[in-house]
Amino acid sequence: MNQKARWIKHISIIVLYIMAQLIVLPVALVYMIMNQGQVDEEAVTRISLIANIIGFVIALIIIGILFIKIKAPFDFELKYRQPWLVSLGWLVFGVVFAYITQIITSIINTQVLKNPMQSENTMEIMEIAFQYPFFILIVAILGPILEELVFRKVLFGEIFNALKINKYVAFTIAFLISGFIFAIAHMDFTHIIIYLGMSFVFSLIYVMTGRIIVPIIAHALMNTIVVILQFTFKDTIKDLEQFQELSNLIFYFFI
Questions:
Q1: What is the value of pTM for the model shown?
Q2: Where are the beta strands (DSSP E) in 57-162?
Q3: Residues acting as catalytic residues
Q4: pLDDT per residue rounded down to tens, the chain (255 residues)
Q5: Residue ranges per domain, the chain?
Q6: Which parts of the sequence belong to the CAAX prenyl protease 2/Lysostaphin resistance protein A-like domain (predicted)?
């Protein structure tokens, strides 16, 4: 019964995540129909972003209800679950380790794999955030929560729990598969190694604490810090080239 209930919950999480991403399409279509095909691009963008936020909030409310109603934890969650104080230590470690991992994978990505430093996905997201600051709610909070539930709780968790082999091999397979899907979902193929690095760190602190809330907070903290840096340095650095160099570095730290 627990396994069946968990599958129901996890399939629902994936469906809700997809719906929250796609809700902008019918909203934009309805807007254009109501305006007889006359397109105000700024209005469409603003309405779509608001719809996106509402979709994310509704998805998280329903997911929260599912977690309350359906209690079906993985075996490893019960086995490795740590006290909250220990989990807090892992949270701090996770954030620091994530930044170190991103620096290392970024160097490999540019120097060894010869991929561009800038992430087009991140540049587009931050451009939207600069133009519509309320979008930061998705970037810093709502997005990380849903992404960790989908890519760590559901994908990584199900794979890791299902593989009845050596736990280190199972962990490696699970974080690689969920990490690749994480990168594909962001349509950012030139930075796959960085997504894999983040998948490793977030999966590690998830397993070591047995609490999905730990990678959720770590992910949200990282994105929040990057947003703050972006807005702060955009206003204070006058030299455009200097800002571009700094942005290139900061873009590495935004997943």
A1: 0.87
A2: none
A3: 147
A4: 578 889 999 999 999 999 998 888 887 777 777 776 666 777 778 888 888 899 999 999 999 999 988 888 999 999 999 999 999 999 999 999 999 999 999 899 988 888 887 677 777 777 888 888 888 889 899 999 999 999 999 999 999 999 999 999 999 999 999 999 998 888 888 889 999 999 999 999 999 999 999 999 999 999 898 888 877 776 664 454 454 445 544 444 455
A5: 1-72, 75-251
A6: 132-225
